Amino acid sequence: MKGGHAYGLRVWHIFVVLVSLVLMITLLWTWEQNPLAITLHTAQEWYHKPLSGVLVEAPINSTGDSKLTKREEISLNTSKKNETKVQLNYAGAVPVHSVPSYSPEVQYIQGIRSSLGRKVCNYAKGRWVADKRRPLYSGFGCKKWLSPMWSCRMTPRPDFSYEGYRWQPENCDMPEFDRSAFLRKMQDKTIAFVGDSLGRQQFQSLMCMATGGEESPEVEDVGWQYGLVKRRGALRPDGWAYRFPKTNTTILYYWSASLCYLEPLNMNDPLSNVAMHLDRPAAFLQQFINRFHVLILNTGHHWNRGKLTANRWIMYVGGKPNEDKRVAGIVKAKNLTIYSVAKWVDTQLVSHPQLKAFFTTISPRHFVNGDWNSGGSCDNTIPLSAGSEVVQDGSSDLTTEGALRGMKIKMLDITALSQLRDEAHMSRYTIRGTKNDSDCLHWCLPGVPDTWNELLVSQI
Ligand SMILES: *[C@@H]1O[C@H](CO)[C@@H](O)[C@H](O)[C@H]1NC(C)=O
Ligand SMILES: *[C@@H]1O[C@H](CO)[C@@H](O)[C@H](O)[C@H]1NC(C)=O
Ligand SMILES: *[C@@H]1O[C@H](CO)[C@@H](O)[C@H](O)[C@H]1NC(C)=O
Ligand SMILES: *[C@@H]1O[C@H](CO)[C@@H](O)[C@H](O)[C@H]1NC(C)=O
Ligand SMILES: *[C@@H]1O[C@H](CO)[C@@H](O)[C@H](O)[C@H]1NC(C)=O
Ligand SMILES: CC(=O)N[C@H]1CO[C@H](CO)[C@@H](O)[C@@H]1O
């Protein structure tokens, strides 16, 4: 009898322990799936929450469960103290395995995550899916913000199937772009694109997305506030800045194809050679970075001998003409500039806590049977004929990925996903004077750069 009673008691104990375990796992699981369901965050808090990604967006008071409370404390502590490491993960930039030693706290939380099947979010990994709600704006309607040469609806191109695709990241929630929510989130903020013509495409795309591709007479031209005015004899200004008065949001673009500091060697001679300081950031960046809240950098397609010669750019390093043969090659010079500019911006983030910085990876070209100036073309019109998925963890742009490793600047990794879209360039319908060359570098708008902006907006 006595033994039987003890036995019953033990069974009961085991039962209680098992039930508690199941309950706890269920609780943790539900919370993992939908932390919002049991929290009461204001929009403000969500906007200001550290971009942790790996860590859990935990409220201080979610339930009475002491385990949860402990985890919340941990996540709050680590998200403050170990922010750099955590942000690396979130950026989708650096594959997790390459991030050096996590603190025990982070490992603890990750352990729970992975045991529950949730993977680290990497926006660059995923697939293209057909979507009837695309494009996000009309190529006819957005005349005001699109260069005619990039608006394929305004060219003789007869096929538009490339407009109907959306990027679906594998492990990230990517909410549908909503322009009023976007502008509200960007209230009193300035978004700056600085880079080459691919950056300009992304800027025009964001203008169309933010206005819905309409005329928007209320949008104010504030280029003058940034010195962006057309100078005498110039084809166009060096950039544009527009302000949405209702939310006081400014979106601007500055043309800086190399991102580095350019200094005419003779101010009085418009045809003077220009010192291209590989190790210094563009003057515009230095002058205005304190006004920006979101900065998106890009470079890449002007790094060739032809462009350097045509622009009369002479490489300088350390304030002197470069004599180091190891730097003189285009690939090395570009590498030096990307590392230098990224390092400078990353340093600025400390003194500009309001700023979030992104570096867009290289936009792929699709010339076949020649290059941009030698009859190369990209005539395929069938979307995703070479596949629709990106499965790799790292970026295809090793230079940018390497430069940003360990930094707070996020990588906007668009290379591999854009590589799948050879049908979405201007192709042979480009307006290029008498030349018959195809443009397999720039993208039709609306089109692929809209997706880059969706990835950007999801990470702001
Ligand atoms: C946490 O809960 C307590 C008691 O319910 C409440 O007084 C307090 O304001 C809550 N704190 C937060 C941050 O919600
Ligand atoms: C969180 O930080 C506070 C103050 O910095 C500290 O007192 C507390 O012990 C920390 N909690 C954990 C779980 O590390
Ligand atoms: C608009 O936003 C800028 C920051 O981008 C801020 O300096 C300025 O005070 C704001 N103006 C108004 C009228 O709110
Ligand atoms: C680029 O520069 C960095 C930093 O100087 C260097 O570590 C890296 O090896 C360089 N990469 C190439 C391809 O030159
Ligand atoms: C221009 O391209 C079209 C179509 O590829 C071709 O038929 C034509 O011969 C080309 N014209 C010139 C001048 O190269
Ligand atoms: C980079 C950094 O701040 N690492 C710290 C993360 O947190 C652990 C534990 O608090 C510290 O030991 C690390 O130095």
TrEMBL record:
This is Trichome birefringence-like N-terminal domain-containing protein. Residues 120-173 form the Trichome birefringence-like N-terminal domain. Residues 174-458 form the Trichome birefringence-like C-terminal domain. Belongs to the PC-esterase family. TBL subfamily. It is a single-pass membrane protein. GO terms for molecular function: O-acetyltransferase activity. It comes from Acacia crassicarpa (northern wattle). PANTHER family: PROTEIN TRICHOME BIREFRINGENCE-LIKE 16, PROTEIN TRICHOME BIREFRINGENCE-LIKE 9-RELATED. Its main location: membrane. It is found in: Membrane. Keywords: Membrane, Signal-anchor, Transmembrane, Transmembrane helix. The chain crosses the membrane at residues 12-31. GO terms for cellular component: Golgi apparatus; membrane.
